[in-house]
Amino acid sequence: MILTDLHCPRISTSATGPQLSRIVAGMWRMTEWGMTVAQRIGFIEQCIALGVTSFDHADIYGSYGVEGLFGEALRAQPSLRDRIELVSKCGIKLVSPQRPAHAIQHYDTGAEHIVASVEESLRQLHTDRLDLLLIHRPDPLMDFDEIAEAFGALRAAGKVLHFGVSNFSRHQFEALNRRITLSTNQVEFSPMHVAPMFDQTFDGLQDLAVAPMVWSPLAGGRLFNGTDGDAENLRLVIKQIADRIEQPFASVVFGWIMQLPSRPIPLTGSGRIEAIRVAVAGTAFVLSRTDWFTILRAARSHEVA
Fold first, then answer.
1. pLDDT above 80 (res 166)
2. Which end of the chain is more exposed for a tag (fewer CB within 10 A), N or C?
3. What is the rounded radius of gyration, in angstroms, for the C-alpha atoms of the chain?
4. Are 208 and 258 a contacting pair, CB within 8 Å?
5. Nearest to residue 268, comparing CAs of 226, 229, 215?
6. Do the beta carbons of residue 57 and residue 67 sit within 8 Å?
7. d(Cα 76, Cα 90) in Å, to the nearest integer?
8. Helices (H), the chain
9. What pLDDT is stored for residue 1 in this prediction?
C-alpha cells in the first residue's frame, strides 16, 4: 500500500503540558541503526516533513550512547532544534562501561541525580533545554517532595519546560502530581499488553485530562512474529481488519491505541522512515466500534462480560 499526503497532527498532553506530534519517534535503538551523522540529520528531517517533530530519549538508551548520537546531528545542523520537541528520562543507573562507578543496576530519583542527569542530557543532546523530562521508573526510595523540588528548580532555571513520569501507577502519578503538575505518564501498552486499560492507569489520566504516552505499541515486534497461539490469532484478526479496510497492519494497531478516550500518544521504535509513515497513517482513520472490540476480544482471548 502506498501512503501519500500524510501529515501527523499535534496534541497537547494536558491543559498546561507540551504540544507534541501525535506520533512520537522513539530513539532507544538508535545505536543499532548504523547511521552516519548525515543520515541521522536526514532521518530527523524526514520525520519533521511527516509532522513527527517529537523525539523520545532516555539518558540510559544505547548504554548512555543515544543522546550523544542525536546530539551530533543537532550540533551539525543547529536549525533542527527549534523545529522539534525533545523528551528524555532519568532515574535509572545502569552498569555500563560508560558509568564505571555504577556497581549495581538501581534507581536514583534523588534531587542530585535528577539535576546531574539533566545537565548531562543537555550536554549530550547539544541543547539548552528539554521540552519534557520523565522519571523513568518508580523508585522504592523516591521522595515525592524531593522530586517536586528538583523539578521546580530545573523549571526555574529554564533547563526543563515540562515534567512527567514513566511506568508509574495511578496512585504514584497522582501523589507526585499533587506536588508539581505532571504532563504525562509513559507506559507500556499494546494489544498484547492491555493492563493500563483495566488497572486504572488510563482511567486516572483521562479523569485528569492528561494524555499518556505509550511505549512498545507493537509489543516489541511480537505482533508480527510471536509464535504462541494467542499472538498468532491476534495477528490474524488484525490482518483481516487491515485487509478489509485497506490499511497497513501496523497502522490499524496505532489507530486502535489512539482511539482510547485518554488520548494515548504512541512511540515508534524504528529508524526506517517507512515505519514512521505507517504509524502516522494510523492517525487518519477511526475503526468501527465492532472492529475495535474484535481486536480487544482477540487480545484478551475472551468476550467482554
1. yes
2. C
3. 19
4. no
5. 215
6. yes
7. 25
8. 37-49, 61-64, 66-76, 111-125, 144-156, 170-177, 195-198, 201-207, 222-225, 229-245, 249-258, 273-281, 289-300
9. 58
Distance CA 115, CA 103 (A): 21
φ, ψ for residue 178 (rounded to 5)?
A: -70, -20
Residue with cell 475472551: 302
- Write the pLDDT tens digit of every residue in 168-193: 999 999 999 999 999 999 999 999 99
The bridge status of strand 19-21 relative to strand 24-26 is unpaired
Give yes or no: 61 in active site: yes
Selecting among 22, 43, 59, 61, the annotated active-site residue is 61
| C-alpha cell of residue 114 | 535528577
**Surface-to-core class of residue 135, CB atoms within 10 Å of its CB (0-12 exposed, 13-18 middle, 19+ buried):** buried
Q: What is the mean pLDDT of residues 52-76?
A: 98
**Mean predicted confidence (pLDDT) in 251-259:** 98
